[in-house]
Amino acid sequence: MTAVMQARGLGKKYGKRWALRDCTIDIPSGHVVGMVGPNGAGKTTLLKMAGGQLAPTSGSITVLGGHPAGGPAQLAKVGFVAQDTPVYAGLSVADHLRLGAGLNPGWDAALARERIEELGLDPAHRAGKLSGGQRAQLALTLGLAKRPELLILDEPVASLDPLARREFMQGLMEAVAEHEFSVVLSSHVVADLERTCDYLIVLVDSRVQVSGEVDKLLATHHRLTGPRRDPDRLPGDQHVVSERHTDRQSTIVVRTDSPIHDPAWTVSRLSMEDLVLAYMEKPAATRPAALEVQR
């Protein structure tokens, strides 16, 4: 499968502090990819390097087969919507569209104009006078009208109310369906990822803990609940992701491709949030190497 983003041993250092270190990642094309992890995992730093805004300190990264800051042709392939969906407060909506047209050779003026009309935004209004949801929609419009092959969105809806978040994500998914581009979306709001993403990456301490198509990840992860048991006694094909124990009961999340027949266990499926939390809560010192569902 063609990768839209590949990193090998990627790192970024600010002074003496590493914001991202030894990150290896493969993100396939043709998906809406959700990237989730705790604060400090390196998500924003990784995405800014992918967008050509930061240069690596160590390692390498390619996006759509090229170097992220490899020139105008490469930059034209990638759209980027940053945290807090920044726009220029003193410029009008129309000014933003003119700026986008001047900076992007593949600018789709008709798409931008139609989307602004559908959103009911007054082209004469200054961006600083718009609501948070309207500013987010304007930023998304600028990213979409660039007609990228890959759209990167870094926590674009974190500060929005639930209705504005839903409208933003709905607009994004409509655009994906119509124009068929790849998306990498980072978010702390797992519910948004559940509604939109078909591929998931959990990033913790700069390392990919698990990645794969959402349906396959959910089908191969299970919660086992039963009498207290040492996880080392589980069959070898049941990889332990996380575990909790009381004096009498064990609750263990496992990944396995095989059916679970042990009658001592109550087996239940996981939601995406359950899956994410299982990989995030495990102590870093005991986390396994990254797992990827085979396609």
- The CATH class of the largest domain: Alpha Beta
Strand content: 25-35%
Helix content: 25-40%
Under CATH, the topology of the largest domain can be stated as Rossmann fold
Pfam families: ABC_tran
Organism: Sphaerisporangium flaviroseum
Region (Disordered): 222-248
Domain ABC transporter: 5-230
Walk me through the structure:
- By secondary structure, the protein is an alpha/beta fold.
- The chain has two domains: 3-205, P-loop containing nucleotide triphosphate hydrolases (Rossmann fold, 3-Layer(aba) Sandwich), CATH 3.40.50; 220-292, no CATH class.
- α4 runs antiparallel to α5 and α5 runs parallel beside α6.
- The N and C termini lie close together (9 Å).
- The strands form three sheets. Strands 5-6-7-3-8-9-14 form a seven-stranded mixed beta sheet, sandwiched between helices. A four-stranded antiparallel beta sheet has the order 11-12-10-13. Strands 2-1-4 form a three-stranded antiparallel beta sheet, with helices on one face.
- The model is unreliable at 283-289 (pLDDT under 50).
- It is 31% helix and 30% strand.
- It has nine helices and 14 strands.
